[in-house]
Automatic annotation (TrEMBL), chain A:
Domain of life per record: Bacteria
Any single Pfam family the record assigns to this protein: PadR
Descriptive protein name: PadR family transcriptional regulator
Lineage: Bacteria, Pseudomonadati, Acidobacteriota, Terriglobia, Terriglobales
InterPro entries referenced in this protein's UniProt entry, alphabetically: Metal_resp_DNA-bind_regulator (IPR052509), Tscrpt_reg_PadR_N (IPR005149), WH-like_DNA-bd_sf (IPR036388), WH_DNA-bd_sf (IPR036390)
Domain Transcription regulator PadR N-terminal, chain residue ranges per copy: 27-81
PANTHER family: PADR-FAMILY TRANSCRIPTIONAL REGULATOR, TRANSCRIPTIONAL REGULATOR RV3488
Automatic annotation (TrEMBL), chain B:
Domain of life: Bacteria
UniProt keyword annotation of Transmembrane present: yes
Keywords: Membrane, Transmembrane, Transmembrane helix
Record field: transmembrane: 105-123, 143-161, 182-204
Protein name: Uncharacterized protein
Length: 104, 307
């Protein structure tokens, strides 16, 4: 997926990931996008190598008494795509606020 | 706690959005949809998918201070739709990846294009009677006469080795060789049909304007499409695994080209299911006239040269 083909929704998801939001619900919450957009987009981005994912350590999740989550992060290609998307949609930075605290 | 974090937390509190746990209706609907949606995902990813969604649903129930669940049923419906869309996307993508490059996918795509071109022609002709009559006339009085020498020319000047398969093992009720030949002939037939329908559809507006004079455009177009189509069909056949008929992948360059006379150099393509490799020499010579298919035997690790 080249940066030229990125839709606005995908650009928002990439921006959210670049700001440290790591999992589906967090991204849904911060971007306001519905789950029907966020999750398939994350799968597609992962398939295309813009995003990689890994499971949270069980011990860490157990400590917080919740199930382990699957965390997503940008790859090198994803970071380049995110920068191109930010240039293409300059208002993205205002739409997606920086992550300040930890989500429960 | 950093001053920045406390500022953020107070900001969230100031939003006057209540910390609303997911209500019973939402949990109920999502809980019921989850096992159905899971069936859409590919079997090997199902457990992981369920685990991820359970974690996400937990988060919706216990976290999420900014999300306002004003209409629980609507929120549940949206979430359930998201779940289904996610599962369906995974299932569809897996099915597509499984079919991509296969012989059946190739034949289906060619057949679909034939139908599209024939449909266009039918639309422009206006009635089935005219459509069949025009097709018959142009096929018998033009296409056959052009196609026959063009088929011969493209087969005779085929740059790769004469199409053949030496595989004798059985896959299903046909041997590898029979399946390979069947696919080749089906592909050639569909390619020729597509060439015919595409030319007819492309020249239809011209035929309506200038009548039989359009044949002067149609005939060379037939010759070009038959030659190019057949060349593609033969090259495509060469670049397929002889066992599973899937397109070969991972092209890798081997050997330095400057040592061409001393050592083998060229390109290697491999079957993604591990059935074998195709060696394409950089420079053809008496030691290697054609591309070489090297089959990997499944039982033993021996590599047998069959071409």
């Amino acid at each position: 997926m080249s940066s030229g083909k990125l839709s606005h929704s995908v650009a928002m998801i990439l921006k959210a990931l670049s700001l440290g939001y790591q999992f589906g619900f967090e991204i849904m919450e911060v971007t306001g996008l519905p789950s029907g957009t966020v999750y398939p987009a994350l799968r597609r981005l992962e398939r295309d190598g813009l995003v990689s994912s890994q499971w949270e350590a069980e011990a860490e999740a157990f400590e917080e008494q919740r199930p382990a989550r699957r965390y997503y992060e940008l790859t090198k290609v994803g970071k380049e795509a995110e920068m191109a998307a930010t240039q293409r949609y300059p208002l993205l930075a205002r739409l997606v606020p920086e992550k300040l605290g930890k989500t429960l | 706690m950093s001053p920045r974090k406390s500022e953020a937390e107070s900001e969230i509190e100031d939003l006057d959005v209540p910390v609303v746990a997911l209500r019973q209706e939402v949990r109920g609907i999502c809980g019921r949809v989850l096992p159905f949606a899971a069936r859409l995902t590919p079997a090997q990813r199902r457990n992981e998918w369920l685990r991820e969604w359970r974690a996400e649903l937990w988060c919706l129930q216990h976290g999420g201070r900014r999300v306002r669940w004003d209409h629980d049923v609507m929120s549940a419906a949206s979430l359930a739709y998201g779940m289904m869309a996610d599962a369906a996307w995974l299932g569809f993508d897996a099915a597509l990846a499984k079919r991509r490059g296969t012989a059946s996918a190739c034949l289906w795509v060619l057949a679909a294009w034939c139908l599209v071109c024939a449909g266009l022609e039918r639309m422009m002709m206006g009635s089935w009677t005219v459509f069949w009559s025009v097709l018959e006339t142009h096929f018998l009085n033009g296409y056959i006469f052009i196609a026959a020498p063009a088929i011969f020319a493209s087969a005779a000047t085929n740059p790769v080795r004469p199409p053949r398969c030496e595989g004798t093992h059985r896959r299903g009720w046909l041997t590898t060789k029979a399946r390979w030949n069947l696919f080749l002939w089906a592909k050639v037939a569909l390619t020729l049909a597509l060439g015919f329908f595409a030319c007819m559809a492309a020249t239809a507006p011209l035929r309506m304007e200038i009548g039989r004079w359009a044949d002067w455009v149609e005939m060379p177009l037939f010759a070009v499409t038959v030659t190019a189509g057949l060349r593609w069909a033969l090259l495509n056949q060469e670049q397929r695994c002889q066992t599973c008929l899937r397109m070969l992948k991972q092209p890798t360059r081997l050997g330095p080209p400057s040592y061409n006379f001393l050592e083998w150099s060229g390109m290697e393509l491999a079957c993604s299911d591990g059935h074998g490799q195709l060696h394409v020499p950089e420079m053809r010579g008496s030691w290697c006239w054609y591309d070489l298919w090297v089959e990997r035997e499944s039982g033993s690790e021996t590599v047998e040269r069959i071409a």
